[in-house]
Structure to design on (241 residues):
């Protein structure tokens, strides 16, 4: 991996912009504002509920057939919750995951919506007795649908912008070989390396600076337009679940 231009950031293709969706104060009426606020409250539950292991509240964010794709786990919502519970129980042999939510936008078109939420994921790892915090700046994508008057997430995935490792105790360090890290996507190369180290092979197509971004943006537009969308949301393959 070249050390030059690791973080290519360009405007998404114009054909992936959902021109008919209501967003911010640019278009729509007061009713769409209420929908956007409801959706925002739902999506912010990811950090508030999951980090506190409030699983009943977390499950309430999703429709029953929801599918979740993170870097470390891709599964229907109930299976993802089970894996998350097991992760907390594993302690320092897994990773202690928390979320800082920094902003959100919502596009609404009829009974469908897409939320894009800015988040910093913090994961605490322990390697050879040294505690290390990975901080990953990323964007969460929730594909939402209103069913029988209730909004809920149907699909979730994310794109990673950049990440880093920080020792918890600044007097202690842990060497991370650059030649190993360089095998992973630029937006989350340290996190992906660490997940591989704890036997959680990372999903490799979640880089905000790769072709998966435009694939995801196109699928978000299709979703808003009422078209059939299936995972993998960041690739051209179809996942059976």
């Amino acid at each position: 991996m070249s050390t030059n231009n690791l973080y290519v950031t360009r405007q998404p293709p114009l054909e992936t912009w959902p021109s008919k969706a209501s967003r911010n104060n640019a278009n729509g009426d007061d009713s769409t504002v209420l929908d956007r606020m409801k959706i925002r409250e739902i999506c912010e539950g990811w950090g508030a509920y999951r980090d506190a292991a409030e699983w009943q509240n977390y499950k309430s964010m999703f429709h029953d057939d929801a599918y979740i794709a993170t870097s470390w786990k891709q599964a229907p919502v109930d299976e993802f919750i089970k894996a998350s519970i097991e992760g907390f129980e594993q302690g320092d042999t897994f990773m202690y995951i928390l979320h800082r939510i920094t902003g959100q936008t919502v596009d609404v078109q009829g009974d469908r919506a897409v939320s894009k939420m800015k988040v910093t994921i913090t994961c605490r790892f322990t390697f050879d007795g040294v505690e290390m915090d990975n901080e990953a700046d990323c964007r969460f994508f929730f594909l939402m649908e209103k069913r029988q008057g209730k909004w809920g997430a149907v699909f979730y995935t994310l794109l990673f912008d950049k990440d880093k490792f920080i020792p918890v105790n600044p007097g202690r360090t842990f060497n991370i070989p650059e030649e190993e890290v360089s095998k992973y996507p630029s937006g989350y190369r340290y996190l992906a390396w660490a997940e591989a180290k704890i036997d959680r092979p990372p999903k490799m197509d979640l880089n905000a600076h790769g072709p998966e971004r435009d694939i995801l943006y196109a699928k978000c537009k299709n979703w808003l337009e009422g078209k059939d969308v299936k995972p993998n949301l960041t690739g051209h393959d179809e996942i059976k679940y």
